[in-house]
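REQUEST ID: PR-0412
SUBMITTED BY: lab tech R.K.
PRIORITY: routine
TASK: structure prediction, single protein chain
INPUT:
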Amino acid sequence: MLSNGPRRTSPLQRINRRLGVLRQQSISREREESTDMVQKISERRSVDLSAYPDLIVIVLGMRVRTLSGLRTLMGFGPKIGRAGIARPEGLLHCENRIIFSFFPLHLGMRWYWKDFTSMETWARSEPHRVWWQQFLRDSGGTGFWHEAYFMRGGMEAIYDDVGGAPIGFQAFAPHCPARGAMFTARGRSKMAGEAPPAPAGVTESDLYP
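STATUS: complete
OUTPUT:
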């Protein structure tokens, strides 16, 4: 006699059915994880610098050595920062307020110049000349430095009253006095051509009579 009741499934059939569900769930999870991995791959980009064959990147820093250096830093830092924001001729971009360390307080900037002539002209003009003259005669409890990197090859650096732990090239390169050929950025970088006359008050003979 036939029964109209629900059809029973064997234990083996139930196990196979359950395994089929688990396989489908596993496949779904793998697809989701694969999609997430594709979405998480970073977007890598670069830049074409072929239009800037004479580009110069210069990193500047001021490190506090004494308590009075805090006042010096607060005085010089904003002035130099505003000069960069004013975008003098030849300055392509500037990034101010770089923090190298909090103790000792050590702040910096990174500027991008179109060429050496633009950078040199600005450094020898007002107001930079006045700041530099004041600083070289009295660093006010701070140390100031810069390192410059040239697209055409070459690098140069200066470190004025920078005490404490070595910075940048100082950490591995021999030290030497910044006198004679090493007094100017043009001389240190072995840049061709003669440097324009330095403004009064910041020449080597003015500072080291």
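NOTES: The CA atoms of residues 147 and 157 lie 4 Å apart.
REVIEWED BY: pending
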